[in-house]
Design a protein that fits this description.
Heme Oxygenase, Chain A; Heme oxygenase; mainly alpha; globular; Haem_Oase-like_multi-hlx
Length: about 200
C-alpha cells in the first residue's frame, strides 16, 4: 500500500559544501575580472599574481598538515612560469594560512576549493584566447594544467557520499575560510594594485 511518502535522497558532502559556500563562491567570482575582460598582459598578469599570492599559503598548509591523498597537485610553479614568460615580476606571497587543522574533514574542505576552481580554468582559457589582442600569444601553464582536473575526479568520489553533521560542518568551515582567503587576496590587488610590468 502506498503511503504517499517520497523517499528523500541523502545529502552528500558535495551537496552540503556547494550549498553552504555558494555565497562565498559568488563573492569571489564577482571580485575577479572575467577572462573575457582581459585586454592586456597587465590584466592577465594581475590575475596570475592574485592566484600566486593566495595559493602559496594554501599549498604550504596542505603540504604540512593534509593527508597525502588530500593534497592537490601544486600549481604555484605553473603561475611562476606564466608570469616569467609574460615578463612580469613574481609578487610577494601572502601570509601563512591561519586555518586550524581539526582532522580529515578540514583538509577535504581546503582541497575541495582548490580542485573545484580548476573546473572553470578551461573556460577561462578559451575566453582568454578568443579575446587576445591580434598577434598576441600568452602563456597558460596554469589555466591549461590537467593534473588538478584529474585530482578533482578522485576527490569527487570522496565527497559524493553522505557524512555526519560534524564532518560536514568542519569541511564547510575550512572551505569558507579558503574562499575568504582568496577574496582577501583579490581585494588586496584592487586596493593596492599588485605591480606588474617588465622586470
Amino acid at each position: 500500500m502506498q503511503t504517499g511518502r517520497r523517499e528523500t535522497k541523502a545529502q552528500t558532502l558535495r551537496d552540503h559544501l556547494r550549498a553552504a559556500t555558494a555565497h562565498s563562491h559568488d563573492r569571489l567570482d564577482t571580485s575577479m575580472r572575467p577572462a573575457s575582460d582581459w585586454r592586456s598582459r597587465e590584466d592577465y598578469g594581475r590575475f596570475l599574481s592574485v592566484q600566486f599570492c593566495a595559493r602559496v599559503p594554501v599549498e604550504h598548509w596542505l603540504s604540512s598538515l593534509a593527508p597525502a591523498d588530500l593534497r592537490p597537485p601544486e600549481q604555484t610553479h605553473l603561475l611562476v612560469s606564466d608570469l616569467i614568460n609574460l615578463g612580469m615580476p613574481i609578487p610577494k606571497a601572502g601570509d601563512a594560512l591561519g586555518l586550524e587543522y581539526k582532522g580529515r574533514a578540514t583538509a577535504i574542505g581546503v582541497a575541495w576549493v582548490l580542485a573545484g576552481s580548476s573546473l572553470g580554468n578551461k573556460a577561462m582559457l578559451l575566453d582568454m584566447q578568443r579575446t587576445l589582442p591580434q598577434g598576441e600569444r600568452w602563456p597558460h601553464y596554469f589555466l591549461g594544467a590537467e593534473a588538478m582536473t584529474e585530482f578533482w575526479k578522485t576527490l569527487r568520489s570522496g565527497v559524493e557520499v553522505a557524512v555526519d553533521a560534524q564532518a560536514a560542518q568542519e569541511a564547510t568551515r575550512a572551505a569558507t575560510f579558503v574562499f575568504d582567503h582568496f577574496l582577501d587576496a583579490a581585494n588586496s590587488n584592487i586596493s593596492q594594485k599588485i605591480p606588474v610590468g617588465a622586470q
